[in-house]
Amino acid sequence: FFFKIWQEFISVCVGNPRLVKRDQWRKHVDYEISLHASTNSMCFRKKMSSVRRRYNEFVWLRNSLENNALIMYLPQIPWNPFFSLRNTGHVLQRMKGLQEFLESVLHTPLLLSDSRLHLFLQSDLSIAKIERCALGKTKYTVAEAIQSTGSNCVSLLEAKLSGGFDCER
């Protein structure tokens, strides 16, 4: 799916659901988010990225965007009170709804200025670290966090900035 935003194209795909078992009782599904922005896009630091997020992180993103957008209508994310990890239909339906949510968000120019959105889509930072980074409470910037993702350096970025490691970009 491509959207024309200020002569720019942004494509997002939510797919590749994966069941993650933390132990016998705790399991969740995460989804791969692939983003491709046109070469002339000024909205995104990286033109191509891929991260994995779980449903509760999408819930956080929507709430965060809603708090920042105030009076703006935001699309809902899919919710099923009878959701089952074992039901492939439920997992695929949720995945489709999450994709539609992100497509709608990326089609809204006002939301494209939110650093939490960029960190959510293009970094593998946890939600807590996204919040801290967006508030300027980390040793690294939003741009540094995004640029470091995918190069196995995100977790080492703080060490580098503390004088510990030299991270190739």
Automatic annotation (TrEMBL):
| Pfam families with a match to the protein in the record | PX
Q: Where is the PX domain?
A: 9-127
What is the recorded membrane topology of this protein?
Peripheral membrane protein
Q: Which UniProt keywords apply?
A: Cytoplasm, Endosome, Lipid-binding, Membrane, Protein transport, Transport
Biological process terms in GO annotation = cilium assembly; heart looping; intracellular protein transport; Kupffer's vesicle development; left/right axis specification; vesicle organization
A GO CC term attached to the entry: endosome
Please give the InterPro entries that the UniProt record associates with this protein: PX_dom, PX_dom_sf, SNX10/11
GO MF terms listed in the record are: phosphatidylinositol phosphate binding
Its localization reads: Cytoplasm; Endomembrane system; Endosome
- SUPFAM superfamilies given for it? PX domain
Q: Give the similarity note.
A: Belongs to the sorting nexin family.
The molecule here is called Sorting nexin 10a
Question: What is the species of this protein?
Answer: Tetraodon nigroviridis (Spotted green pufferfish)
